[in-house]
Amino acid sequence: MADYPEALVHNHYLFDGSQVTIRPIRPDDAAMEQDFVRHLSKESRYARFMATLKELPPAKLRYLTEPDYDRHMALVATVVRDGHEVEVGVVRYVVGPDGRGCEFAIAVDDAWQGTGVAGLMMFELMVIARERGLTTMEGSVLAVNVKMLKFARQLGFSVHHDPDDRETVRVVRAL
Amino acid sequence: MNREQIRDAVLETLGRIAPETDFESIDDDAVLRRLIDLDSMDWLNVIARLHERLGLDIPERDYRRLGTLAGIIDYLAERLRGQSAG
């Protein structure tokens, strides 16, 4: 199993003064990750997975919570509620076959959208990717997901439409 | 920098992020993110630009003090005073 990158654990404050921890996901976060996915709205789940699912199948859950922290990096944002750590967002990248570019994905609990946590997670993810020598980050976004497309543009991504695919668009930025 | 100059600097910064807003009639005590429909990324951009313009680090733990124009001016005046005193 890959060593846990402890140096990437950071605490942050959001605009309302609440605290979140952004840290690499761990294998023992599987139950927390599954709860997070179950609690997403149908729309948010579809926007993230581009499929209708209510929870993650075991193999997918294992894949998402056991990154190697090298070619696959994932960060969760968590808060403490009633003494328990609760996941409110997750971002990840997976390095492409050329070893220079990566594909990102993001999901944020519906109640935490608009709090600033998504921006903080993406900033951290882009810093890690840059420090590891990656040169581009890309993602697929549903063409109807106007909020996500605005967010991507604000983060410096450019938006590319594929004439053969009207459902999704590619967002790309240099790191 | 006096309060009026700080106010002008903040309004100019906000104006760049939300150019369609009429700042002439702004209520200094209104919650800015609601008043001018700033989302969280717009707001991070406002803070980054104030940081660049005023040369002040604005730590995340202070973000909650920046909800209104009056709050921002009070906060920046306090920090700038502290900077010049230090």
Walk me through the topology:
The complex is a heterodimer of chains A (175) and B (86).
Chain A (H helix, E strand, L loop, with lengths): L9 E4 L5 E6 L5 H10 L2 H8 L8 H8 L6 E10 L2 E12 L5 E8 L8 H15 L4 E7 L3 H9 L3 E5 L2 E10 L1
Parallel strand pairs in A: 5-6
Antiparallel strand pairs in A: 1-2, 2-3, 3-4, 4-5, 6-8, 7-8
Chain B lengths: L2 H15 L14 H4 L4 H15 L14 H17 L1
Features:
heterodimer, A: 175 residues, alpha+beta, Aminopeptidase, eight-stranded mixed β-sheet, globular, B: 86 residues, mainly alpha, Non-ribosomal Peptide Synthetase Peptidyl Carrier Protein, Chain A, 4 helices
Under CATH, the homologous superfamily of the domain at 6-98 and 107-134 in chain A reads: Gcn5-related N-acetyltransferase (GNAT)
The count of strands of chain A amounts to: 8
Give the N-terminus to C-terminus distance of chain B in angstroms: 15 Å
CATH topological fold name of the domain at 6-98 and 107-134 in chain A: Aminopeptidase
Number of extended strands of chain B: 0
Largest interface: A-B, 15 and 15 residues
| Radius of gyration of chain B, in angstroms, nearest whole number | 12 Å
What's the CATH C level of the domain at 6-98 and 107-134 in chain A? Alpha Beta
Q: Which structural class do you get from the secondary structure elements of chain B? A: mainly alpha
Overall residue-averaged pLDDT value of chain A: 94
Radius of gyration of chain A: 15 Å
Low-confidence stretches of chain B are: none
Main sheet: strands, sense, barrel of chain B: none
What does this structure look like?
The complex is a heterodimer of chains A (175) and B (86). Chain A has a domain at 6-98 and 107-134: Aminopeptidase (3-Layer(aba) Sandwich). In chain A, 29% of the residues lie in helices and 35% in strands. Chain A has helices at 30-39, 42-49, 58-65, 117-131, 146-154, and strands spanning 10-13, 19-24, 72-81, 84-95, 101-108, 136-142, 158-162, 165-174. In chain A, strands 1-2-3-4-5-6-8-7 form an eight-stranded mixed β-sheet, sandwiched between helices. In chain B, helix 1 packs across helix 4 (69-85). Chain B has one domain (3-81): Orthogonal Bundle (Non-ribosomal Peptide Synthetase Peptidyl Carrier Protein, Chain A). By secondary structure, chain B is mostly helical. Chain B is 59% helix and 0% strand. Chain B is globular and about 35 Å long. The two termini of chain B are 15 Å apart. At the A-B interface, helix 5 of A face helix 3 of B.
